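Anyone have tokens for TMV resistance protein N-like? Sequence:
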Amino acid sequence: MELASSSSSSSSSFLKSKPHFIYDVFINFWGEEMQRKFVSHLHSVLLQAQVKTLINMENLEEGMQLEEHMRAIASSKIAIIVFSKTYTESTCCLRELEKIIECRETFGQIVLPVFYEIDPFDVRHQKDDFRKALEESAQKSYSGEQLEHVLSRWSRALTTAAGINGWDVTDFRHDAELVEVAVSRVQTLLGYEDLSHTEFPVGLESHVEKMVGSIENHSAKVCMVGIWGMGGSGKTTIAKAIYNQIYRQFIGKSFIENVGQVHRHIGLEEELIYQVLKPKFKWKGDWMGRTIVKNELSNKKLLIVLDDVNKFWQLQNVCGNHELFGQGTVIIITTRDVRLLNKLKLDFVYKMDLMNENDSLELLCWHAFRDAKPRKNFNELARKIVTCCGGLPQALVALGSDLYLKTFAPWEPTILPRQIFADYHVLENLEKSFDGLCNYMQRDIFLDVCCFFIGKDRGYVTKILNDCGLRADIGITVLIQRGLIKVERNNKLQMHPLLQDMGREIICRSWPMEPEKRSRLWFHEDVKHVLRNKTGTAATEGLSLKLHSTRDCFKADTFKEMKRLRLLELDHVQLVGDYGYLSEELRWICWKGFPSQYIPDNFRMKNVIAIDLKHSHLQLVWKQAQVLKWLKFLNLSHSKYLRETPDFAGLPSLEQLILKDCPSLCKVHPSIGDLCNILLINLKDCTSLSSLPKEVYKLKSLQTFILSGCLKIDILEEDIVQMKSLITLVSENTAVKQVPCTIVNSKHTGYISLRRFEGLSHNILSSIIRSWMSPIMNSRSYIRPLCIDMENDNLRDLAPLLSCLANIRSILVQCDTQSQLSKQLNTIFVEDGVNFTESTNHSLRFSLIGVGSCNEFLNTVRDSVSKGLESSECCDISLPCENNPYWLGHTGEGHSVSFSVPKDCDIKGMTLCVVYSSTPEIVATECLRSVLIVNYTKCTYQIHKHGTVMSFNDEDWHGIISNLESEDKVEIFVSFGHGLVVKNTTVYFINREPVKTLSQEYERFFCLDWLACIMQPFFLK
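Reply: yep, here.
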């Protein structure tokens, strides 16, 4: 880093940027032989202590430049000033002193004065000979007003330095004692000692590399970052590794572990100040803590790590104001609760994902076998342990260490996880997250999920638990933010197996020997014990018994005392007797293989939200119509004997009716038309159903209608257009001869599956594409992206459908095989003659297309490209395509780009940049015909019409991203007309939108004579 040559300026280029430390200590002095010997001794001992030290060069060598002294000072963490009676005789020393004080005030350089045979009072007030020598030194180089100004600055620097706590040589028996004390103090302040974090850093390097790279990109300011993950996932380990790698770059540093155990604000601030400043003072109150932080830390470049934070107040005083810290300060916060991080203005948050299977196995083996692979005969056991630990590093380390201590005796699989987890406090550590939940409702939601709802749809569970009074819409979000549960593909709730063990352990621990007194019962032996002995109590709120057959039979009166039972899950359980004994508080009934031909009338369900009786023996749902005004979900799938649906008049709240695979179902009650809140009807594989009541078409709330496999249904009425909310219609393998053309004109319908439908011509896809390739843009109406899912082998002519597609924005085509996909793409690109490049004379043009809230991003790119076009000579284009913390780039030659969807990447958006040449009169946005996205992994392709890509919106983006998953192989094609030549196509997956950084990158790469780019950013909500 270049420095200004003069120390008189308080705005040197170095001090405007973050300090770059080269030396640990700079020694400034001037004196006679005795002082020189002292300084030489001090210098020698510092070097022996491996402290990188630079001595005042003018005292050792002649001819060195002042600029080098200034650079050395500003590149040192600590400055030792040795004052003597002759100190002010050196102009160079005084200039260096001024620079030292400037560095202290600007970025917190540590200053340690030594008063060698001179009283600090004399330095502070500059009397007599000391003052006279000062004036003479100034007069050597300055005169007039400049002389007065320099004298004033030097005098101020001397006064400031004399007021800093240091050492007086007269307080020590001899120089060697002072040297020993000074070196010890320097070592304490530097604190060059790595934190101990892990013996076997498997997979650690990649985490540290990503984090350090992101920190470096924010180094021009106070950088605050978060590390979030569940307990035992390695947050502290990675924080320590980052600390060890970068702490030498900082004036002061602090790593405070277990912040969650600090119960008062003052405790955290006191620890922080002690670690950073190493002061010896008596703490006097909260106001003093804030004053010291403000006065002593505000100009220092610090590294602060706050580990395992669980309360926002622990962060508020320390991290609430960036102005408290010097430029270049880095603050790293680790927590299990991402909500705490969301309340702060962090530069980024790093989510600690669990270890993959290979890294898990390696970590276990290093601890168990001191090798990267399992020993012979232990491979199967090691893999079982890995599965049990579920990628949690703490559990892997605990189990591996325990196995190592067993000297490889033949182990029984039964000893595997639980006792070892208890011995090493693995579950106890995880329980901290549960203890941190702020109210009983959140704890109840967690326990309900871990016992009953793993793998269930989030919305489904939310509505059930909301009706239990638990405010699950908020509570589930909190649990996700604290890492206690997660939402995976298809919106299903999941939980780490050890967290599930922890939750169940909490329940069992309350009544270890009396299961009937526990709040939830799920372990089949405990449940059977309670049911057989009729020992149920009002303590039980949830019960699950999953059997493989119906051989076990219990009496209904065993539930008599379970008056608070809300959740009931039974698989293949026979219950005889009076169903009136079952609790009226039931909200969720999930009874697989329900044994009766109908639900008894005395089965009181007035408060039930969801009834799930899959694989039941029902012939009728109930004999007399029931009024269940809260029922939202009715699932009777795979009920082989069910002949007709119930009367729906008493089910006003029903949202989902699922009758999948009910082969005997032949009648749908006309009252289905009264379901004003229905969202989903699934009649898939109801092979005996030959017709639908006309009332079904009056359902204005219905969004999804599935009729696949209803072999006898041969017509869909024109009245279907009355379904104003219908988005998805699936009619595969039916006898339907035609689909009303009005359905594809609907402004809401987004997905129509017509697989094996006999009403489409074999060339309809290419016909649609050709119509979309037309350069005439006359469609501006809005409609959701339409997905037509069909087989190409069984298609007939359906001309009216093609004419109805004028208003469709996009089409998603699902192929059955790679071969079929290749055949259809070949038809599009070869047989239909789609041309992507045409020869023409090119000129300088560019255009930008954006979507969502990306104005600042687009404006930055537009300005940078414009400058490049104005200032450059004719040359080839080079786009930035290397990976960056903010994007992952892929470039292809010509009209297409191939890539794999990034793995485990939180994609905020995707940007497509097309470089092309054109004649001056042609504007690219007027001749972009279409964008085609091919997913080779899923055998799909998605076509966006020319009018659509000019106005991509959130619905379009959701349609695109929903068909892209991690590691999918994808290719994007762009089609132009009117004589454009596509040079190359680049796609960027954007993690966030760093406007300044992007501006710098574009300015660096877009220095060219001709360029035009079409940018299509898509941002997730």
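The CA atoms of residues 339 and 481 lie 6 Å apart.
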